[in-house]
Amino acid sequence: MIRFLLVILFMLTGCASEQSSASLHPFEIQVDESDLPVMKQIAEYAPLNTQFNSVFTHQFDQLAVSVSNELTREKFEVTDWSSLSQKFSISTYGLPFYAGQTYQVSFSVSSTIADHVQVIFDDYSQPFYQQNFEITDQIQKVQVNYTHQGNNMDDSQMKLIFTKRSEVTSGEILLEDIRFECVSNYPYNIKVNQLGYLPESQKLAVFTYNSGDWFEVIHADTDEVVYRGQIVGRIQNPDTKEVNYTGDFSAVTAPGIYRIESQINGQSYEFEIAENLYDSLLQDTLKMITTQRCGMVLTDTIISGFEHEICHHGLARGYSSWQDVDVTGGWHDAGDYGRYTLTAVKTINDLLMSYLLYPESFSDQMGLPESNNGIADVLDEAEIGLNWLLKMQNEWGGFHTAAVTSQFAEFVLPEHDIQQMWILDDENTSTAAAAGTLALASYIFNNVDTQKAQNYLTCAIKAYDCAIDLRGQLDKKNPAEFNAGDYGNSSDTDEIYFAASMMYVLTHEEKYLNEISDYLNSSQAYFGLGYDDFSGYGTYMLMKDEQFKKTRLSSVVYNAMIDYAQNLVWDNRNDGYHLTINSYHWGANMNVANDAMMMLLIHDIEPSDDLWNCAFEQLSYLLGKNSLNFSFVSGYGTQFPKNIHHRIAQVNQSILKGALVGGPDATLVDNLPPAKQYWDDSSLYSTNEVAIYYNSPLVFVVSAFQ
Question: Has residue 385 been placed in a domain?
Fold first, then answer.
């Protein structure tokens, strides 16, 4: 377990315009070692679903038959087949036959008791194709090609019917390598991580019924079968209206380009296995946030097609005060040009956490602007948000909630959006969340730049005290004349908990511990990572703090954390695509990334291969292992978004590599499964908009696997 250095002494230096000579001293809690909290034993995570259910049905017609199976081979021992009228058949259903498409059935067969096998395609009532083949006791290849001329059929059946030799009553039938495939239009219906896998990572593919009993991993350059595996884990998936199965090919570790083919009618897109496979993805997911920078010139050396001149650099007007204020800088929040405190706070948190847990994943050579005295680029990017955040704090410590124009900008480059900029009034959720983020920044920057760390702390204390004074203040709706984004937040309790947690980690003062205790006694929300629930950041930092571990509160948090982790793993293993979210709405992909991030944070506290692998499966979902067979990260995978809702991208007709789109939104239509309601359409902002706070947890997750 990584042991963090605790910050125990800070001198207050003032928030931008204010100086103070006060200082903080650590509050030491005296603990009787015999009275330390007892942690609950970690229960086992949900078991993997490895149950095998063959898609083939055997009908023995009252024959005495014993069956022995290998992966691609079945042997049937018949002890008494006396009547010629008795039939022995093998069948599978759920097969498509579409007009004009050619289908091929192939298998190898031999028998000492049967003399013919009949291949039949039927619609469950009558055959629409059949062909008879003579068989002997010598193994032989049977192959049938059939071009369907009838109506499209989504669900049909294939049968192999064996007839016996007249003079024999006992013997065996050997059936090997039976396959069914559409050879005229081979479907890409096996779902994989389209970017690929690290050599030692878990590797899962998802199959939809009916894909057969087994699959093959094939080297793309040589067509060599390098691995065969069984298709297991039948799961009814209500979100996709599919029956899903899984194939595990983690045993394939050699670098190369591969594809997967299934026994019945399917293949995957090609994917790569390689070391350092996620380097460019990490670079581009972070660069996406850089391209959202406001109030500065961006050149094509960052990402070509997203350069722009200085924008939104005039003074903003206070909505209530009508005072002009400098709030230049920060990031454009999403596909428009608004800037919001809550989403900036989440983005900053995720970038800081990325550096805190995975500093080795970042370097000064990532290609981002101005590395600051050797500080890793991810901290440079976090500072863009932090510098803007400080400008959003008012004189009594509160934080304005947004810097926006009254109307969304037209689809123009940012320098051409010349509307009046307004700063909306302070809100307590924004104030408390900003207090927590500035305290987190102070914690991290104490080892990088102590002067900045002290300034962040001063501003954090001022904001925290303001949030406590205004506790319970409800967020305001945007003014009626404003048609801008409105990030509603129903309660300030989790933001205050986050801020109190960070202040306690920094100072160990009792008043912060009391605040934490009150929250833990009244709330079950300990693990949120969204712009409307910051509790997870506070929980993680508390559980890494050695002083907090000596309090009885730590057992409350620890046990809740283990329960939460178990639920995440259970959801992962009971979902057809190994996903943990249970609803699809505007920005659902952010929740996928947030869940992966929370798993990795818990893994850092209580290491678990299960959590690590489950987190990777969330990333794989975002990179194409989903029901749409579509990577939600622009520029990565075989199929990815090309028409994102983003003003610069649409004006310049450019691909913003590394941008995570919002994903399926179940509220759009009534006649599609929830997980399939996604379209690569720039007009659909609920599915295809990108945002800094979608990308920031993705930066964290990719940095873990980089």
Answer: yes
